[in-house]
Design goal:
T-fold, 8-stranded antiparallel β-sheet, 3-stranded antiparallel β-sheet
């Protein structure tokens, strides 16, 4: 519960945040341990994939075989990584990138559905989410973690190769084609979420319905309730973007997904100005004005895509987007009035489940 000395309004304006951060007992993904009685333990299973740790938390009853299906779900993540990675010459995405400018390329049906979602979200976000933006990352050096400021001509040349509107999807034939040579797709803004959605499908087919999944702790999918907690849903901690060891807030998640995006770890400074790795594909320059964005959506792929898009769109455009979509929520963390302070802005479905990280 929110302490009585703070109102929801003061919390969202950032006035209460500093006083609520210290001493919070972890109730987030950082607290991976056993809980409950001996017949129903909350267990965690992890596996490295997609350059992060994928994790499943669920009640493991000694009388069922749910853990077998959890391992199958993690096996599936490895298969999806092989399909979607841009770091293996034999991946399906690499094959698409190498051929689609010359001829339509047939795509596996589920991957094609993900491309359809990416194209729809590109249109709905007015281009803020664009899975063809890799040339811009190359120009700015972020793809090799060697940040630099490119010349205007380099940015303009890269922009000519960016734009989901130049990707043609044939819904009947399930093919993809690029209208401009040199274009490519990269699913790093949706891939982890998509993998979580596929894991949830597999677990659902075996009637497993109370669990939490995450990829790298930035993309999360929750189903049902946390076993033995006494609360509906799962409580998730939102990290402070300037002080990652601290929680900024927490929220309740049930039968939906969450993703957080920010440029807190990949950035560089030039002449006192900070340049983050999340680029606005419409301008070709790094997005500015926010520290981080947390998005809620029905699916993890959509939540991951929206957290990136909202970071690019900023406060006003994100508010307009959420206003007409009741299942979508956003928490935007912006700079406060003083250095080191933050200001919180919540929209849509985020408003009815957000609370500050309280002290015990």
């Amino acid at each position: 519960m929110i302490p009585k000395r703070h109102t929801r309004r003061s919390f969202l304006q950032g006035e209460a945040v500093a006083r609520e951060l210290s001493g919070r007992a972890q109730r987030s993904l950082d607290s991976v341990a056993l809980a409950g009685d001996r017949s129903s333990l909350l267990v965690s299973v992890c596996r490295r994939a997609m350059a992060c740790e994928f994790e499943a938390q669920l009640a493991a009853n000694r009388h069922d075989n749910s853990m077998e299906y959890v391992f199958q779900a993690l096996d599936l993540v490895e298969q999806l990584e092989t399909q979607m990675t841009v770091y293996r010459d034999d991946s399906e995405v690499i094959q698409i990138n190498g051929r689609a400018a010359n001829e339509p390329v047939r795509v596996e049906s589920r991957l094609f559905e993900l491309l359809q979602l990416a194209k729809k979200m590109h249109a709905k976000t007015n281009g803020a989410l664009d899975i063809t933006s890799s040339p811009l990352s190359e120009a700015w050096g972020f793809s090799r973690r060697e940040g630099r400021i490119p010349a205007e001509a380099q940015i303009e040349n890269a922009r000519q190769l960016v734009g989901m509107q130049h990707v043609v999807l044939d819904d009947d034939q399930k093919t993809v084609a690029f209208q401009r040579p040199g274009m490519s797709i990269n699913l790093n803004s949706m891939g982890k979420g998509y993998a979580l959605d596929r894991m949830a499908e597999l677990l659902g087919r075996h009637d497993i319905d109370d669990y939490l999944l995450h990829g790298g702790k930035s993309s999360i999918l929750a189903r049902g309730d946390q076993p033995s907690s006494g609360d509906a849903g799962w409580w998730i901690g939102v990290r402070h973007p300037l002080r990652p060891a601290e929680q900024l807030a927490e929220l309740n998640l049930r039968d939906e997904a969450l993703s957080t995006s920010g440029a807190g770890t990949q950035f560089f400074f030039r002449r006192g100005k900070r340049y983050g790795h999340i680029l606005d594909p419409r301008s070709g320059y790094p997005a500015e004005g926010l520290y981080s964005v947390t998005a809620i959506a029905p699916s993890a792929a959509e939540a991951e895509g929206l957290s990136t898009a909202f970071y690019v769109m900023g406060v006003d455009q994100t508010g307009e987007y959420c206003a007409t979509r009741p299942k979508i929520g956003a928490l935007l963390v912006a700079p406060g009035e003083r250095e080191g302070d933050v200001r919180l802005v919540a929209f849509g479905a985020m408003n009815d489940r957000l609370q500050p990280a309280t002290t015990d």
